[in-house]
Amino acid sequence: MADTTISSELRERIRAALKANPRAMLMMVAAEMGVPEAEVVRSLPDNQSCELDIGRWEELIRSFEALDKVHVICSNGAVTLEAFGQFGNFSTSGTFFNVQTASIDMHIRYKNLGAAFAVEKPGHMDGFKTISFLFFDKNGQSAFKVFLSFGAKAPTPEREAQFNAIREKFRLK
Questions:
Q1: FRET label pair with 4: which of 113, 146, 153, 154, CA 20 to 30 Å apart?
Q2: C-alpha–C-alpha distance, residues 22 and 78, integer Å
Q3: Pick among 3.10.350.10, 3.30.420.40, 3.40.1570.10, 1.20.1250.20: CATH of 48-170
Q4: What does pTM read for this prediction?
């Protein structure tokens, strides 16, 4: 990832904002603080985030196929797109790593990926615990997010076990 090191003072301000509002949308905190969203994720309190080995991006993404259906969010400066579906039918074509199933058609510019995290935090809409894998580009901006739980219910024990297994397998050493 690009050198986006932030000052310890700014990191503490981010942590204080997240502690004051644990349900805050991470992208909104990033915008308010003027930092890349990846730095907000790195600043999550209470071990809510775990950085993953982005060098193993393909293996990590392929591991999502076993999860059945997940909630995928992609955002940029003008639009947010959400999909509910299953990863699979992977291929590589030029600079793209493709996920092409009946429910997800996604083309990832894998050379631009800079960081990935496993994140547990209260959902911004309802406060229920969400578990997710967040991917960022080399500038720390969101690439895409894969939620194993999303919306008005807590993750099932099975989902928690799947999340924990993937997090531990790809944890940055």
A1: 146
A2: 25
A3: 3.40.1570.10
A4: 0.94
